[in-house]
Amino acid sequence: MSFSLRAAWRPAAVDALLVAFTWLLAFLFRFSLLRNDAPANLAQILWISTPLAAAVWAAALAGMGAYRTPWRHTSVPEFKRLASAMIVAALALAAVLLLLRLPNFPRSIVLLHPLFAAAALLGLRLAARILAEGRLTRSSAQGKPLLVLGTLDDAARALQSLRSSKGWQVVALISPNRGEVGRSVQGARVAGSVDDLAAVAQAQGAHHALIASEPGSAARRELLLRASEARLSLLTLPRADDWLQSGVSGGSAPRQVELADLLGRAAVQLDVRGLSDLLAGQVALVTGAGGSIGSELCRQIARFGVRQLVCIDSSEIAIYALEQEFKARFPELAVRYYTANVREPERLGDLFKLHRPAVVLHAAAYKHVPLMEDDNAIEALRTNVLGTLNAARAATACGAQRFVLISTDKAVNPTNVMGASKRLAELALQAHAAQHPDTHCCAVRFGNVLGSSGSVVPRFAAQIAAGGPVTVTHPEIVRYFMTIPEAAQLVLQAGLMGRSGEIYVLDMGEPVKIVDLARLMIRLSNKTEEEIPIHFTGLRPGEKLYEELLADDETTLPTPHPKLRVARQAEQEAIDLQALQDWIVASGADSPAQIKAALHALVPEYAPQIGSH
Fold first, then answer.
1. Which of 27, 516, 547, 606 is least buried, going by the fewest C-beta atoms within 10 A?
2. Which among 430, 388, 423 has a CA at the least distance from the CA of 408?
C-alpha cells in the first residue's frame, strides 16, 4: 500500500472502536428509544455482529484509502473519499449479514448504523482539523504582521497556504474591489481598498505585504506598484513549479517578489512539443553564445539531446564562462567553443562547413542604443547587418535546415541606428531567404529582456548598490519586458513554425514604466526613495518614449501558439544584397550623418529623433 501501516493502524483502530460503539448505539436507539421489544437472542446478535461491523468497516475504509491523509489535514477530497468508503462499508456489511441470516436480526439497523457511523467518523476528523488549525493560529500569532493584497478569492487561496507557514501573522486583507471592504474570509477581514493601504499598514504596524493576485495579471502588477509606493516590503507565494524544482520542503512559504512578477501577463511558457524532433541527434549552432540570450539558448538546447552544440562568440571571457558552466552542468554534452566574429565570413564559413549544423540561432549583435548612435554607427551595420548576412550565407552553404535571427522591437519604426540596423538585418534575411528556399529563415522580435546584459536591470542594481541615485531618462518612458528563459524558448519555438522569411512577435502584454521598475527594485533592496533617489536625465540620442512590436503598415496573423504571431508587412522591393554589402564595406570613412542618410534610404520608416516626443 502507498501509505505507512505504522501510521495508519492507530486511526484505523480508533475508527473500528467508533464503528463498534455506533453499532451498539444503533441497537440502543432501535430497541430502547423507539420502545420496541428486543429479540430474545439480542446478546447473541450483538456478540456476532458488532466485531463483524467493525471489521468490515475498517477493511473498507483502509481499502478505499481513508488513512492516506492524517486527520488534521482532512479537506474536501478526503471527505469525498471517506464518504465513498462509508457507502462501500455499509453495502458490504449488509451483504455479509444477509448471507449470515442471523435469526431475528432487525433490518432497520442496516439503515440506522451508517448514519451514526458517518456522523462519528466525520465529526472526529473535523475536530482534528479544527484543533490543528487552532495550533497553527496560536503559532502564527507570534509572527510578523502581514497584509494580504488581493480579492477575497485570491486571499482565500493565499490564507490556505499561509496556514502552514510559520513566522507570519495575517492582520488584515486589502482588496482592489472597494465593494469587498468589511467582508472577511477564514477569519481575516478586508480592512480597506488599495487606496487605504498605507493607512491600514500603519494602523496594524505591518511592514510586509503579500501579493495574492494571479501571477502575471495586470491587477497583480498594480498591487505591486501600490504596495511599493506605500513603502512595504513585498512578498508573494511561490508557483508550484518553483518549489517542486527547488526540492525543498515548506514550499508554500512566502518568497520575495521578483522582477518577473512585474510583467503585466503570465510568463510565457512556449510549447516545446516537437523541439525534440527538431534537435535530438542534430548539431545546433549558436552565435553570440556568451551573451544573456545566447547562453540561455544553449541551456535550453542542452535539454533536447542534441548530438553536438557549437558555441560561437567574439568575447573570450564570455565563451570561457559558458564553457566552465557547461562542464559542470552538462558534462555528457558534446560542446565546441569558438572565439570567432560574425563579421569574418571566411572563419564563419569554415566553422559551419566543419560542423554542418542543422539549426542555427543567430544571437550575435550590438544592441546598446546610445553607443551605436553616432561614433559607432558603422559598427552596428557591420555586426548587425553584415554579421547576419554572413551567418545566413554560411548556414545555407552547409545545408542547415533552420536559421533564426534574434531581432528587437526597436526595429519597428526605428528612431536610432541600432534599431534601423536590426530592421535592415530583417530585410536582408528576407531577401536571402527568397534566394535559398531550402533553409527555413525567420526572425523573432523581442521586447526588453529582464536581467540581460546592458539592460536597465543590472544598471539599476549597480546604482542601488552604490547608494544611488538611480537614473531614469524620462518619467513617462515605457518598455515591453520578457524573461530570459521565455525569450530563449520563443526563439526555439519560432524555428519550428511557419514559412521562411517570416517575422515573429510575442504577445508582450502591457508595457512597463521604467520608473516603476526602478521603484520596485529599490523596494526589493529594502530601501526607500529617500535613501535611493530617482533622477531623471532626459531622453538619450535615438531613444523613444515607447517601443512598438509592429510597424504601422503591418498586421499580424495567428500561429498555432496563442502568444506567438506573425508580422505581415506591405510588399516592397527586395534589397540588393551585394549592393548592400558593398555600401557597408565602403562606408567606414563616412560621417554619422552620411550613414544615417543612406540608412534612411534603405529603411524608409527610419526617422532619427533626438529629445522628447
1. 516
2. 423
SS3 sequence, 535-559? Answer: EECCCCCCCCCCCCCCCCCCEEEEC
For residue 334, how many C-alpha atoms fall within 13 Å in the half-sphere facing its CB? Answer: 10
Q: How far is CA 261 from CA 450, 516, 534, in A?
A: 11, 13, 21
- The residues facing 149 across adjacent strands are 174, 211
Instruction: Give the count of alpha carbons within 13 A of 395, CB side only.
Output: 34
Instruction: Please tell me the predicted confidence (pLDDT) of residue 133.
Output: 63
The residue among 183, 261, 189, 264 whose CA lies nearest residue 228 is 261
Going through 241-305 in order, the beta strands assigned E by DSSP cover 255-256, 283-287
- Per-residue pLDDT tens digits for 179-234: 888 887 777 888 888 888 888 888 888 888 888 876 656 677 777 777 777 778 77
**Geometric angle at alpha carbon 419, from 413 and 420, rounded to 5°:** 75
Is residue 246 within a helix (H) or strand (E), and if so which, with residue range?
helix 240-246
- CA–CA gap between residue 445 and residue 491 (Å, rounded): 9
Radius of gyration for the alpha carbons in the chain, expressed in angstroms and rounded? 34
Q: Is pLDDT above 50 for 246?
A: no
Burial bucket for residue 424 (CB in 10 Å: 0-12, 13-18, 19+):
buried
**What distances in angstroms separate CA 376 from CA 19, 423, 431, 596, one per listed residue?**
85, 17, 26, 12
The backbone torsions φ and ψ at residue 358, rounded to the nearest 5 degrees and listed phi first, read -85, -30
Position 98: which residue type? L
Q: Where are the beta strands (DSSP E) in 118-187?
A: 144-149, 168-175, 184-185
Q: Interhelix angle for 514-524 vs 218-229, to 10°?
A: 60
- Per-residue pLDDT reduced to its tens digit, 145-181: 888 888 888 888 777 777 666 677 888 888 888 888 8
Q: How many angstroms separate the most distant Cα atoms in the chain?
A: 119
> What was the pLDDT predicted at 250?
43
Q: What is the DSSP letter of 574?
A: P
Question: What does the pLDDT read at residue 73?
Answer: 52
End-to-end CA, the chain: 70
> In angstroms, rounded to a whole number, what is the distance separating the alpha carbons of residues 96 and 245?
49
Residue type, 455: S
Instruction: Name every residue whose Cβ is closer than 8 Å to that of residue 245 and which is 6 or more positions away in sequence.
Output: none
469 upstream amide cis, omega within 30 of 0: yes
Cβ count within 10 A of residue 21 = 15
Half-sphere exposure (CA, 13 Å, Cβ side) for 527? 21
